[in-house]
Write a structure and sequence with these properties.
Chain lengths: 428, 428
Amino acid sequence: MRILIKRAAVIARPEEGLIPAADVVVEGRHFAGVLAPGEASGEFDKIIDGEGKLLAPGFVNAHTHLAMTLFRGFAEDLALQDWLEKKIWPAERKLTGEVVYWFALLGLVEMIRTGTTAFADMYFFMEEVGQAVEEAGLRALLSYGIIAPNPERIEPELKRAEGFAREWNGAADGRVRAALSPHAPYTCGPEVWREAVSVAKELRIPIHTHVSETKREVMEHRERYGKTPVQWLEELGVFAVPVLAAHCVWVDEKDIDILAAHNVSVVHCPSSNLKLASGIAPTWAMLQGGVSVAIGTDGAASNNTLDMVREMRLAAILAKAKAEDPRAMPAPEALKSATQRGAQALGWGKDLGVIEEGYVADCVLFDLGTVHFLPGHDPLADLVYTASGADVEMVMVGGEILMEGRELQTLDEEKIVARCRELTRKFR
Amino acid sequence: MRILIKRAAVIARPEEGLIPAADVVVEGRHFAGVLAPGEASGEFDKIIDGEGKLLAPGFVNAHTHLAMTLFRGFAEDLALQDWLEKKIWPAERKLTGEVVYWFALLGLVEMIRTGTTAFADMYFFMEEVGQAVEEAGLRALLSYGIIAPNPERIEPELKRAEGFAREWNGAADGRVRAALSPHAPYTCGPEVWREAVSVAKELRIPIHTHVSETKREVMEHRERYGKTPVQWLEELGVFAVPVLAAHCVWVDEKDIDILAAHNVSVVHCPSSNLKLASGIAPTWAMLQGGVSVAIGTDGAASNNTLDMVREMRLAAILAKAKAEDPRAMPAPEALKSATQRGAQALGWGKDLGVIEEGYVADCVLFDLGTVHFLPGHDPLADLVYTASGADVEMVMVGGEILMEGRELQTLDEEKIVARCRELTRKFR
């Protein structure tokens, strides 16, 4: 399959700014060239008109709990403990593989519609999530979330997580990879972490976890172990494998040095951190300190969307307030965190995240027809500060078109919506 | 004209939650009833199908600089002083009435498309803005921004502001009202403020200004006058007239008491405050302290949109982080600030902001067809935390339909876009 995206404005690498017009050639799974308009030659199986449109690398949602679309709007404006203990956890006990499968599909529809091409998901019933991802055509790093508050849960939980990882790593033609996910330092003890690291090393897969999300969690960890969660994880040897550390709201300078030294990918989830009143992560200090900061939506229960365009904008403006400097997190950096640094977090850093010959063809096309893109002094800034997920009109993953002209190509949206409505009635 | 909006889910008053299905009758400029489905009787000139849709009061953007759509993306990621002194102010010197007129129209298209029915605008060439508002059909509180750093500017500036107010207050069939706008305590001295108050009293119009936006501004004011801008304005007698105080990021407890005691409407502009690194306003503390807090986008140069749906969501989640309490600014309060409290700020508090018999018919209809509205456990929370401006499909102001089925009814979008493109080329 040879595809030509013709005369689009292109952001190939955020730090290099905008190419006002280019022809982008896709051959099979990869970009085969970014050429001056009219320079692409040969036969094409498909030509996509890019005039008046902006092509960007696909968004990478580096931390979410996909099937929590079921819980969107289910438990609003509550204190964190009530939210978890009275609403979310009891409801999660009622989950079934079937429910997770359909609400994962619902989340995948939402992600495609808002330009996400890859994501990292940690949850339960992950085989069903894997199946949904396989059908949808996205790229994903999937993991079973290990929660082992008491010793007898450790072995079965680890077994389940490891079993999933062994079965699904490399599935869906390589689009699905697996991670190991001890849920957090406060829900898993040293034994779980050590075993997870050993399996991760053997399978050469990353660890995806939650780190230092709330002030209380860090205080309690300090009281219990005499050190911060980041320092504790380092000493346990967890950072010997690639790690996605979601949140990192409450990290100090020493933590930042550790995260940078071990190439940990921090995943900033600004909406969720604000909505649950967890705080504001020092993303610009982390980036300045050499930490790779990706962006995630977290689950739809605490966001309440899976829209990375919205999340990128929030990450950009929130970083300025946190750093008390409007020059912090300029637009190209925010876009890089929402794309390339996400790809790196998921372990695809060498293969995707930019639009360049040889890279895997994951990209999204924005329709610049909405009035908010005028006057267009700086389309890259418009993409970060102005664009809406609803402006996305074409999505491609590995050369496969998942949406074109806002029509989904791989999923039956009507059927998914109907099934989710049915299951919602039952769930209530 | 008699219009029926049939079987829509309705939020009549945010604090009363959702009416799952109702028939809403509009007669002339007013709502004539919110009835059980099927109960509306008589002849209708028009029936709007509300099935699968959500009707809410129109959004009120209580602080913006409309024609700054011209400067969207023009000066990004700069320090505040560079932003103003090197980019925005020099560019504003090149403005003409023609440019302001067309970019005001562009902003009006954007506002209609994202559900705004009324707004407060302070800028220059306000006659042209008034003309644009008259054509668009929105409701607006308009004012010329007085900047008088040296004594000889005082009289001509005041004259201009007063002239505009006398001419335009009550124009466009009452849809346009005027305010007086000394720009801020740091750009206008006591003489300007006293004169503005006297004119405002005579014309019975409000004062719309910027208050305590940055830390530096408040520090300098303290150094110069020995008190905060809020305390200083109170002593000058400014709060004897209704006041819209934009920003109020840096207010202390005493300031909050003063604002509450004088019924000042604070206008929270979260995107702009984050993007310019001004800080985070204590909105929940103000609401708890009895201050009416409305929401505004500020100008498109520092937002970079005029989308109140986006701004409402940010106001809701940011308030929780600022208050360190996820229960702060629950969804109904955020919606109220984006609608009713905005109407009150603009001086229309008794006439609009709710959907109820006798109130002026300003309302918006959201299409719930986008997947992010599933599963729909709490449509009011979905509206605040999930919805996008792109979900708005019908907008009505005073019984007049400004957009239906996402088609603009009063403005020629194509012509406006073409003119703005032309003017942008010239401006560069």
